[in-house]
Design brief:
Radius of gyration: 27 Å
Number of helices: 17
Shape: globular
Oligomer: single chain
Strand order of the largest sheet: 3-9-6-10-2-1-8-7
Largest sheet: 8 strands, mixed
Strand content: 5-15%
Helix content: 40-55%
Length: about 400
């Protein structure tokens, strides 16, 4: 391809939305995809409505969709994204579903008569994907997004791209703790369970509905597309639930106790800001060693980490190398120590979020001034407290700190 696949996916996502508002053009795309490339109508409709994520399909499928959208919308994207050799090759190709050999055997143990839990890996999930055996059942999933234009509308899958990117990054780095993908078998599935071997034997199957773990599924699909050798262990739950029970299962999963985002983020031990906090809390040369805690600490772990992220690791392009993490830890340690050694009363206090923001705003500046920082801390009760109600660092807080310094 002449340009990144991600760029083509973004382009086709926009164009697909345009097609769905014109029934005649939509039908033309469905018909031509089937006639020219042997791509099933249902599959094309899933692509257009984002029920199948475009990141989850081959370059050939993307080419076929791109060619047909170009035709109906009078665009010229094929020439921008594909080489002449690719165009010639894909134009002469036909879609052929990859098959999977039955029986499918899954090592697992029964939980109930209609639920089994076992282990698998990305390779196995991708075999199911290539054989078109994983289906997104919109009737038994979280609410789809309704897209409206005038009196016309359609529904599409809502994806949290940030979540997918974080899962992908952690999987790729080997930091992702495997958790469960849940696949639901239709009740007409021919299967048996071998108690001696602890194996679920599926003799025939129309498809699995993916009932939980869709974002993980998309993340692993994207990684596998980029690197065919990628593999990763996963938990696998096989269920055979009717639709109402699947909905109850999704509801039950959604009721899990939720943490504040700031506390949840502090649990991510691959995040550079958390690594800095961990290093500070264990550093015998840091004057406040051991006082950083998620519960009843002198410094709140989650709040401190979020502030460090804001000042040192903000944005996708931030330096997150080990070298920079060490540099940041040393910088904070040395400057925080100089402050507490000049004013020893700061060794015996609990720090509020606002006070941490004041300190870290000053510490992160090249022209760090110990006395100015201490004087600003002593005026903290005069600051506009409304700005700090939500404990998430932002520009408005910096403005409030600057105003306080001038008082």
């Amino acid at each position: 391809m002449l340009k990144p696949k991600e760029e083509l996916v973004n382009k086709l996502t926009t164009l697909s939305g345009n097609i769905l508002f014109d029934k005649e053009k939509e039908n033309n795309v469905l018909s031509n995809m089937k006639t020219e490339f042997n791509i099933p109508t249902g599959m094309t409709m899933d692509l257009l409505t984002d029920r199948t994520n475009l990141n989850d399909v081959s370059e050939f499928i993307l080419f076929a969709l791109c060619k047909n959208l170009d035709t109906e919308l009078n665009k010229h994207n094929v020439d921008k994204f594909y080489t002449p050799i690719e165009i010639a090759g894909y134009s002469a190709s036909k879609f052929k579903e990859e098959t999977i050999n039955f029986p499918i055997e899954i090592k697992c143990v029964p939980v109930t008569a209609d639920q089994w839990i076992g282990t698998t890996d990305v390779n196995f999930i991708m075999k199911l994907r290539k054989a078109q055996l994983i289906n997104y059942n919109a009737n038994a999933q979280r609410t789809l997004q309704k897209v409206v234009k005038g009196e016309k509308s359609y529904y599409k899958i809502t994806l949290n791209k940030d979540a997918i990117n974080k899962i992908s990054e952690n999987m790729d780095n080997g930091n992702y703790i495997p958790n469960t993908i849940t696949l639901n078998m239709p009740d007409i599935t021919d299967y048996s369970y071998d108690d001696n071997k602890s194996v679920l034997i599926i003799k025939s199957l129309d498809h699995f509905d993916i009932s939980d773990g869709y974002h993980r599924y998309i993340a692993m699909s994207q990684l596998k597309d980029k690197n065919p050798d990628f593999n990763y262990p996963m938990e696998l739950r096989i269920i055979m639930f009717p639709e109402d029970k699947v909905k109850q299962f999704i509801y039950q999963e959604d009721q899990k106790t939720k943490m504040r985002k700031i506390d949840s983020d502090s649990m991510n031990m691959s995040a550079p800001e958390n690594l800095v906090v961990e290093r500070l809390n264990r550093d015998s040369m840091f004057n406040l060693k051991g006082t950083i805690s998620r519960n009843a600490g002198t410094i709140n772990y989650g709040e401190f980490a979020s502030i460090i992220k804001y000042f040192y690791f903000k944005g996708q392009t931030a330096d997150k190398s080990v070298k920079h993490i060490i540099e940041v830890e040393n910088d904070i340690k040395n400057r925080f120590n100089s402050l507490t050694e000049a004013h020893t009363d700061l060794l015996e206090k609990d720090y509020s979020f606002t006070e941490l923001m004041i300190i870290m705003y000053n510490l992160s500046n090249d022209n760090y001034d110990i006395e100015k920082t201490y004087q600003t801390l002593n005026k903290v009760n005069e600051i506009d407290s409304k700005v700090f109600t939500v404990k998430v660092p932002r520009k408005g807080m910096i403005s409030a700190i600057k105003q306080l310094e001038e008082v």
